[in-house]
């Protein structure tokens, strides 16, 4: 068996070994290979770290390997680590596969001790000040990161030393001051650790390395990884790098730079430089840095060399790079580079610029942007120039910027919005009853619930701004109080769904230019040009069509402007709310055929008009209409309220036969678990004539538009089917009606089903016999596959599941590939076996989720459907899925 190799010299690695060497190590190796001036060094692998973390001690053979690497390093440098006469010093640096800026630890100047500090001074031409400055830095970093000594102890002591000398700048401390400070640091070290600072250079190095390994599990690193969804078990590599010194005088210094502006993407030289300083001073903000351009005057030769290297790196990585460098007495050294983080706007601009410069092709540009970034660019913005007063802060649950009058009930929201006011709906938490108010409001603010609360999920789906969980709010019926202020109905507040901030008063907003562009307006900006170029390419490449979920003509029209290729889900239940609710109530409670027919006849023309509006907006494109789905109780008065009012009436001896009748009926139909009860296709099979009326309305609408010369393409979707028999019954009735209504018009009506009950997925082969298409209702499918309710996920246990890592992200947000995804695969495969051309799509939240879009592409579905605002995001991600090479050809 080959011996495990744990240590790689910089000359042995390269940029594609990030998993093994970490990003920092892999890129130091790459720069070494490119012949750039990198101090010599080596990398201890992430494997060694994992082994250390698993057992608590270094794996066998590691010590010996480090010894021989160190010997090689010493030889190439012509110095020995910590040699009292002429010491080699090293830095011991963390560096994981994913960059976790500032999360883990680095120790500089390892190898200094009471003896070698003199050697270092001699080496620097008798510069005692420099030597003691370096030594006190070692004590400080080693104490803090290796031995957990509180950092303030050291920084306070430094401040005190400056005060004693009456200076403000650490550069004004001389060699004696720093020597005294070093002695003080040593005492601090003893006080907190109970032992002396280790003088033995190799022991320093060993302890520093193990501290870097352990820093992988430091609290803030764990938190950062959770936030960024970085796996917890990767470990960090450790880099040992020969020290170069930026603190050797005015001809030395240290800096950071970007090859392009990470905020705007503009090409140029961006960075900061600090004369006579060591690396960490730049970020620590100890002294004021100067703009990198100043280096041109300070040290023109190094400046030119740096610019040339930056050009080399950009050309090599074909992307924006950020770098760390140090100048030691006029000699430039490269200490780090990586492909730099950037804002969403810069990601698009840079990708498009690199295409224009011929550095990358459009496929690569597409891979370098994401739907999440596009989503960020689509949110409206607050103009904070007027410095508005912050009232409180909650969780930014659905981004955007919204201002309006505070209202405290859905009804008021609807009323005021109808009167032309902008409103913010403020609720302790929301529930499905609030839907109309949420739609009417510009934004939603809740005191309770997190990112997966009802408010958050619904708001995101609608692209409505939402701040939830603002738990300082004390909400009453018509006002809320927070930090001594009271906001009453009608008072204007502004909420920022990204930062979670709530402001008093109106803060001006402007729509994002990217949305203006999608709306078809002319916008002159480099950002819009970049988005346009990349979107066009995504459209050209993608295999998935993108439809929208829309229930109104206005939504449909907007989605179409945003690029929707039809409607994948038109929910008809909204069409039964408002003043029509009464008709539905009558229908459900009808005792006789006559009553029922009367109610149905009243509903039919209303339904027909809804569909006419929709088909018109989507002329020439498919419109999938889902027959009525929601549980019955949503249409009936509440059992409790009704019982109370009947009881009160009885007590007073009043006659209320109508209410009593109603109460009887509601009792009869009451269900313990309405979500698992009389809904979807069951409703259609139990209430005669209901589905038939809807099908008739659809067919009549289509026939009328065809007569006008339009091209309606209705698709009728039956919800909640679990057995082919259910679908067969609805289908034969539906076909019959369709034939009767649209004979001779040339309109074609498809009849298909949702796959949202696990049994439907598992018997998809049978169901396909009776279906022209499947549309995966992934919300219900997830709910029923896991057996937990989507509406209660915020409650008792969900947060704990997330915390325990049972799922990394809510399965209602990103499709659960192994479980729910497997059901989808089975249904798609078995359906296709029976009908090779069976049309397959997805409606439901996941259709607009980037992760999930990639999965649906892999499974080979034909389309995804999502809310209008998510349409561009789905288009982009479908394009990205197509250029990753993981797709399916089964379409
Ligand atoms: P981080 O990941 O937090 O940036 P680094 O490992 O890059 O930590 O190191 C912290 C600082 O020390 C950086 O400014 C870096 O440039 C500097 N530094 C690291 N190694 C050396 C070295 N061998 N010589 C001089 N400066 C160094
Ligand atoms: Mg760094
Ligand atoms: Mg459903």
Q: Which ions and ligands are bound to the chains?
A: adenosine-5'-diphosphate, magnesium ion
What gyration radius follows from the Cα positions, in whole Å?
A: 33 Å
Largest sheet: 8 strands, mixed
- Mean pLDDT reading: 91
Strand content: 15-25%
As residue ranges, the low-confidence spans are none
Discrete helix count = 35
Q: What's the shape?
A: elongated
Oligomer category = single chain
SSE-based structural type:
alpha/beta
DSSP, total strands: 33
- Report how far the terminal alpha carbons are from each other: 46 Å
Helix content: 40-55%
Strand order of the largest sheet: 14-24-23-16-17-18-19-15
Short description:
This protein is of the alpha/beta class and 891 residues long. The chain has 35 helices and 33 strands. Helix 6 runs antiparallel to helix 7, helix 13 crosses helix 20 (526-541) and helix 15 (371-378) packs antiparallel against helix 35.
Key terms:
eight-stranded mixed β-sheet, single chain, elongated, binds adenosine-5'-diphosphate, alpha/beta, 35 helices, binds magnesium ion, 891 residues, eight-stranded parallel β-barrel
Structure description:
This protein is an alpha/beta fold. Strand 20 and strand 21 form a beta hairpin.
List the helices and strands and how they pair.
Blueprint: E1 7-9, H1 18-33, E2 41-44, H2 46-55, H3 62-77, E3 80-81, E4 87-88, E5 90-96, E6 106-110, H4 116-123, H5 128-146, H6 151-165, H7 175-193, H8 201-215, H9 219-228, E7 236-242, E8 253-260, E9 267-275, H10 280-284, E10 290-291, H11 295-298, H12 300-317, E11 321-328, E12 331-339, H13 344-356, H14 362-367, H15 371-378, E13 381-382, E14 390-393, E15 395-398, E16 401-407, H16 410-418, E17 423-427, H17 435-440, E18 443-446, H18 454-462, E19 465-468, E20 474-475, E21 479-482, E22 485-488, E23 492-496, E24 501-504, E25 509-510, H19 513-518, H20 526-541, E26 545-549, H21 553-561, E27 567-571, H22 581-589, H23 593-617, E28 622-626, H24 639-651, H25 657-669, H26 681-686, H27 690-707, E29 713-718, H28 724-742, E30 750-755, H29 758-762, H30 764-769, E31 773-777, H31 778-786, H32 798-804, H33 820-834, E32 839-843, H34 850-859, E33 863-866, H35 871-882
Helix pairs in contact: 4-5, 5-7, 6-7, 13-20, 15-35, 20-35, 21-23, 22-23, 23-27, 24-25, 27-28, 34-35
The structure holds adenosine-5'-diphosphate (ADP) and magnesium ion (2 copies).
